[in-house]
Specification:
Blueprint (H helix, E strand, L loop, with lengths): L16 H16 L23 E2 L7 E2 L6 E6 H7 L4 H5 L5 E5 L7 E5 L7 E5 L2 E3 L19 E6 L3 H4 L6 E6 L6 E11 L3 E12 L2 E15 L12 E15 L4 E16 L7 E17 L4 E17 L3 E18 L2 E16 L2 E18 L2 E12 L3 E15 L2 E12 L3 H5 L10 E14 L2 E19 L10 E21 L2 E10 L2 E2 L12 E11 L2 E10 L2 E2 L7 E2 L2 E13 L2 E8 L18 E8 L3
Parallel strand pairs: 6-9
Antiparallel strand pairs: 1-2, 3-8, 4-5, 6-7, 8-9, 10-11, 10-34, 11-12, 12-13, 13-14, 14-15, 15-16, 16-17, 17-18, 18-19, 19-20, 20-21, 21-22, 22-23, 23-24, 24-25, 25-26, 25-27, 26-28, 28-29, 29-32, 30-31, 32-33, 33-34
């Protein structure tokens, strides 16, 4: 199948030519690697490790699945990858993952949007230890408020998953996991210092004894920052941030059949932004995610999971008076029946949303039933899901998906899938002064095909997709709402179409990896590119061992984007080069050092908003072995 993407020219933009050349080298080397020893595939992103075939992921179907059986397009990031990145924000780490771009209004702690396969930021469903987080004002997760220090593992699912997760998962799902305790006791303490007066300190302990396992962590991070906006009409102060976060995860193995677990993550973020002269504008963001789980293995074939969740996203600005408070509660009862190569799942789920955003004080609920069937044997994998959500405001909505994978050779696997998804309008979309009570859910229909090769420490994957969205909610002219300024309306249609290439190859003692996205995220009504998304972006990386050090370099490149829907305000393309190194300085101490944007490249992720320039970071962590 031949896919046309973005009417790509033969000559790539200058900022992407180094990335394309290096990716071509990785792909060529991967072909030669067919003589390597057999082993597990690599889920690819910048600076990711190589998981084994027996490793499992849960995000694709909400049930544990071996990578060898996976049909969905998933990337895994572990704690080592996160720590080596030296990043201060979750979006900075995700930007190294195939298929992801982000925008940010200044430095870490400011408003951040994440585009998965070019989709709107609100089209990515985000979970922390299975707890859904969302804002019923802006729609989507507040990425800037999720503390990187408390994250142990991230799974990124590219592609709609409405038939599994219900509302919101139109572009994909990001599942975040905190650490789980293992046998023994493992304390740690870490400190770090970086440019712009950045300071970090973290401490925690995890372990297990008898039937109890536990993991506790706390972190404090602060930075003086830099001036987020350099235009003359804005306050020329430094817009820094302060973040205090903690997490707790405690499990009780009652017996061989039953396990109880509780999880909690909290973060208080105070960051600066610019809205005019003479004011020290502050964002105050509070996030919490609480989950209680009971897992039961009733028979060798049948198991259940009962989950209760509670999350809060509170956003306030000062001295300008604004307050938005979203409170979500969730209830999930999931059943799994496994018989040989067959897996049947059935779930009942309820979600309750509450928004306080004066004068709004509204609630709604969604009740859902979901069914799934999976089969994996003889090189064939089938996954089918259907779901019906009944919303207390607009009624019912059905979604479905069907995926097939075939391992036609020991190292090769072809996949194909179709699926539908939707997102219910936020309570702010419907009941604010700009709201319209008759808004319909945004809905999408996706089709994709993929090809993957893996052998030894090398791999290659190519995925082509097309995701069309109807009833896209945009801000239109005044009319059906009380405001004279404008109203939210269901008038737009969009298409997210593209190809994602990823590859990894070990050349002697050097591990090479890279990804390239060729995409065409467009407004179908106007033919214009969607704001702040490029037609081409990619990553490259290489690391090796050198006299006791792990040293590496990575490149992130993006083509030009537009800051507005009319495509009249250009955001230039850029290429960023970063260097990193780590070593064990003593038996229990690890040193990490990193320089980002080595060439001090000036670029913008949002018009008139500055980026950090060249930055350096050094961190030391004590963790007894």
């Amino acid at each position: 199948m031949k896919i046309r993407t973005s009417r790509a020219r033969l000559a790539a933009p200058l900022c992407l030519r180094p990335a394309l050349v290096a990716l071509a080298v990785v792909g060529a080397c991967s072909v030669q690697a067919q003589q390597a020893d057999a082993g597990g595939p690599v889920l690819l992103a910048q600076n990711l490790r190589a998981p084994s075939l027996t490793e499992t992921v849960v995000t694709a179907t909400r049930t544990p699945q071996p990578l060898s059986d996976l049909v969905a397009d998933v990337t895994v990031l572990d704690r080592e990858t996160i720590e080596t990145s030296g990043a201060t924000g979750l979006a900075d780490v995700l930007a190294r993952v195939p298929g992801i771009e982000f925008s940010r209004n200044g430095g870490p702690g400011t408003t951040t949007g994440v585009f998965l396969r070019g989709a709107e930021s609100r089209f990515t469903a985000v979970y922390i230890d299975g707890v859904r987080i969302d804002s019923q004002s802006t729609g989507g997760a507040a990425w800037e408020s999720i503390p990187l220090a408390q994250i142990d593992r991230i799974e990124v699912l590219r592609g709609p998953a409405g038939a599994v997760y219900g509302s919101d998962a139109m572009g994909g799902v990001v599942q975040i996991f905190t650490k789980r305790g293992e046998n023994g006791t493992a304390p740690y303490v870490g400190v770090g210092f970086g440019s712009h007066g950045t300071r970090k300190i973290e401490a925690g302990v995890s372990g297990a004894s008898g039937t109890i396992d536990y993991a506790l962590g706390i972190a404090r991070e602060e930075s003086k920052g830099f001036n987020a906006r350099t235009v003359a009409t804005q306050n020329p102060d430094r817009d820094g941030y302060e973040s205090t976060s903690a997490n707790a995860r405690v499990g009780l193995q009652v017996n061989a059949m039953h396990r109880l677990e509780g999880t909690l993550l909290v973060n208080d973020l105070d960051s600066g932004y610019d809205s005019g002269l003479g004011k020290d504008d502050r964002n105050k963001h509070r996030l919490h995610a609480l989950g209680l789980n009971w897992q039961a293995q009733w028979t060798p074939q049948y198991k259940t999971r009962l989950q209760l969740t509670d999350s809060r996203d509170r956003y306030e600005t000062k001295p300008s008076v604004y307050l938005s408070d979203t409170h979500l509660r969730g209830y999930l009862f999931q059943n799994e029946w496994r018989e040989g190569a067959h897996l049947l799942t059935a779930a009942l789920e309820r979600r309750e949303d509450n928004l306080e955003n004066k004068p709004i004080d509204r609630k709604r609920s969604q009740d859902a039933v979901a069914l799934g069937y999976g089969y994996s044997a003889g090189g064939h994998t089938v996954q089918a899901n259907v779901r019906h959500d009944a919303d207390s405001e607009f009624g019912g909505k059905g979604t479905g998906s069907l995926a097939y994978g075939y391992a036609f050779a020991p190292q090769w696997r072809a996949t194909a899938s179709v699926g539908t998804a939707f997102r219910a309008p936020t309570l702010y979309h419907r009941f604010s002064e700009y709201g319209t009570g008759s808004l319909n859910p945004e809905s999408s229909r996706n089709v994709e095909v993929g090809l993957r090769w893996a052998e030894g420490g090398s791999s290659f994957s190519a995925t082509a997709y097309r995701n069309r969205v109807q009833d896209l909610i945009t801000f239109g002219a005044a009319g059906p709402c009380p405001s004279d300024f404008g109203c939210y309306v269901n008038t737009a249609r969009a298409e997210y179409k593209g190809v994602t290439l990823a590859g990894s190859y070990r050349l002697g003692g050097v591990q090479l990896r890279g990804s390239l996205d060729l995409q065409n995220p467009r407004d179908l009504a106007t033919g214009k590119l969607l704001a702040r998304r490029s037609k081409r972006h990619g990553t490259l990386g290489a690391d090796t061992q050198l006299v006791g050090w792990t040293v590496g370099a990575e490149v992130q490149a993006s083509g030009r984007r537009f800051d507005n829907a009319a495509n009249t305000t250009v955001l230039g393309g850029y290429t960023l080069v970063s260097l990193y190194a780590s070593t064990r300085v003593a038996r229990d101490f690890t040193l990490v050092a990193r320089v980002d944007n080595l060439a001090d490249k000036h670029y913008e992720l949002a018009r008139t908003y500055a980026t950090a320039g060249r930055t350096a970071y050094v961190g030391v962590k004590w963790a007894p072995q």
